[in-house]
Write a structure and sequence with these properties.
- By secondary structure, this protein is of the alpha/beta class.
- It has one domain: Ribonuclease Z/Hydroxyacylglutathione hydrolase-like (Metallo-beta-lactamase, Chain A), CATH 3.60.15.10.
- The chain contains five helices and 15 strands.
- The strands form three sheets. A seven-stranded mixed beta sheet has the order 1-2-3-4-5-6-7, covered by helices on one side. A six-stranded mixed beta sheet has the order 8-9-10-11-14-15. A two-stranded antiparallel sheet has the order 12-13.
């Protein structure tokens, strides 16, 4: 758990693919944002319940964001929505590929405001057409970037064509590395996190190796 000034960030790993599920809870209002209902609805709902300890207000799921449409990131989406009634959001260009209806299609540059914090949408084209990252700017520390499967320690996410690779690396370069400072914390869709400073020296290497 990360205990920040205005929110807490909790996470769990689910499934055989080590998918990360993140929960952001506003300390002031109890508003909660879930990122990627990847698998194991019971574990995700337990995470939501744990988040009630992070606020003196009445904790309540305000939005469930899917970072991209791949099957391993949506396996618990229907069950979590059914059991909580939480509204859903996803990149507009991925909505057609997600079987659970999307209430809020997201576009690059959107700011989603909750009672106590904001998230900025960064569209990263290439892993899927609508893949996106979510940026939380902590007023008292480094920013936190939730990158789905678009950026990991050691490289960008998997792509299937050369054009998709170029698109994703170009977006990651221009919309993340050229936009945010080195101390930004990266929370990926699988495995361990990193910082932009740790990854920045390797951008040219990634372009040469093509993965």
């Amino acid at each position: 758990m990360r205990d920040l000034q205005d929110i807490t960030i909790r996470s769990i790993s689910v499934s055989e693919m080590d998918n990360n599920v993140y929960l952001l809870t506003s300390k002031a209002s109890g508003a909660q944002v879930l990122i990627d209902a990847a698998d194991d609805a019971d574990a995700i709902l337990a995470l939501v319940r744990e988040g009630t300890a992070d606020t003196a207000a009445a904790a309540h799921p305000a939005l469930l964001v899917t970072t991209h449409s791949h099957w391993d990131h949506v396996r618990a989406l229907a069950a979590v929505v059914e059991r909580t009634g939480v509204p859903t959001a996803a990149g507009a260009d991925d909505v057609a590929d997600i079987t659970v209806p999307t209430d809020v299609p997201l576009e690059h540059g959107d700011i989603r405001s909750f009672d106590g914090f904001e998230l900025e949408v960064i569209h990263l084209r290439g892993h899927t057409p609508g893949s996106m990252a979510l940026l939380y700017r902590d007023p008292a520390g480094p920013a936190h970037l939730f990158t789905g499967d678009s950026l990991f320690p050691g490289g960008i996410g998997r792509t299937t064509t050369g054009n998709d690779f170029d698109s994703l690396l170009n977006d990651v370069t221009a919309r993340i590395f050229d936009y945010l400072p080195d101390e930004t914390l990266v929370h990926p869709g699988h495995g361990n996190g990193t910082t932009l400073g740790a990854e920045r020296p390797h951008l040219a290497e990634w372009r040469v190796r093509r993965w």
